[in-house]
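Proteins fold reproducibly. Next comes an illustrative record:
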Amino acid sequence: MQLNLNIHRELLVDNFAGGGGASCGIESALGRRVDIAINHDPRAVAMHQANHPETQHYCESVWDIRPAEVTQGRPVGLVWLSPDCKHFSKAKGGKPVDKNIRGLAWVALRWAATVQPRVIMLENVEEFITWGPLVEADDGTLRPCPKRKGQNFRSFCNALRRQGYAVEHRELKACDYGAPTIRKRLFLVARRDGKPIVWPAATHADPKQSQGRGLKAWRTAAECMDFTQPCPSIFERARPLADATLRRVAKGVQQFVIAAEKTFIVGVQHFGEVSAFLTKYYGCGVGQSLHDPLHTVTSHDRYGLVTVAGDHYQIADIGLRMLSPRELFNAQGFPAGYQIGDDTAQGLSLTKAEQVRMCGNSVSPPVAAALVAANLGEMRIRRTGQMPISQRPRHRHNRRKTSSAPMHMPPHPVQAWRTFEPLYGLLQQLQTGSIDAVQGKPVMRAWESNELVEVVPALDGWICCWKRIVSGESLAIDLKPMLALYRNLKYGVMLQDRHLLQAKDCTDACYQAYLRIPRGRMIEYSKTEQIQIELESLGIVETQECTA
């Protein structure tokens, strides 16, 4: 687990966050959680919060959020928006549309005008580019004006340009970036920092073309399936299937089993092979092969797994079940451990319909990851765990010899680095804006072992010990920056970059002093501090904070 810290750095904001697909992709790309997530649906916020507990969540309409207030004057690196798409989607057909829902994308202009995010990204169905004015039909309902298709979309892009943004848009398919679904969406990128907009290169392709292009083959729907789940026989149902469903299954058996050049084989049973395909309950198609990426996941149950037992001459049985929400999330590209509400032991419980809806409305994480990594790669957290090059030992040394250096001599540089490495590691992690945590408490690696210890008490002990060293050695080292860091972490006060820089300078000064002090004296200081801690724990002396 990690805790987000209140550090002066560029914020990541996810509007229309839903169950967390975009946030998941952003985290994968940058190695850090989004700072702010906004959604009006309490169930969606519950799923997002279960998987992104360190994010600040707002369960409100995006129009009720004031960007300047929620960002508290801090710079914004990325604002992601995935406004409701159903009133643009081809699945909507010729049905009436809602003007308010179609206009949700305009909230991007509020963010652009008030907090000026460096980059804005928007995801929607490809029909979003046809966004235009509505006209009243004969029945009194509102319909898109066929003569002014795309007018609002062009106005939207021009409004962003007037705010100083370069704007580009392109359609991307999830299967081209490692998700086992063909899901195609329109992505718009706007940035005002003068850098070029970058469209990520595909990493996967149709198996017939992938090798020649040096790419991986598309992942398949079969990878998402749990074939251990029972698939009840269609002939033994208490309630017969609808005639349309039976016709769809029959056509699928003919197309994907009997006449198929490449049948997907699940296994072999006593009455022959068991083959499988997917049937779908929307659109005009019969279904699809499991050798291909899954077709677009929708917000309703639309896919069924059909198993056919037998051979080309005799079919012994046909099974049918709907795909589970977990299989749909797998296809969308979510990580295997993502909490979707199907396991109450994890603390999140959602109905199957809610889980399917969250998945169908989500952004495919691999596509979001590719787009964010291509345009904001400089924000990625890199943890090297290495000491500064000027302080790094030039040669490899024997660990036993360095640990048994004469007591009257200063410590070997390797040993000195081992002593200071946990503190440098802590400061480096604090600079990223997040820190490892256990049960909500920030932790770091201990000095004498690889175990985790709480940061605040550890800093208190370190400062106490160095107060003794500074006093005993008459060192001109000011420990106030470390005291300030300790208090800010303890009381949750905002950390500024200058706090971390000053603490780093203080640590460097202590490190250089440590290299000059004989080991024997350093051990005595350390033992004195340990004795003080033991006396306090036994109640022999009153516990006092050296940092008070």
In short: Residues 227-323 form one domain. The longest strand covers residues 272-280. The CA atoms of residues 444 and 450 lie 9 Å apart. DSSP finds 17 helices and 22 strands in the chain.
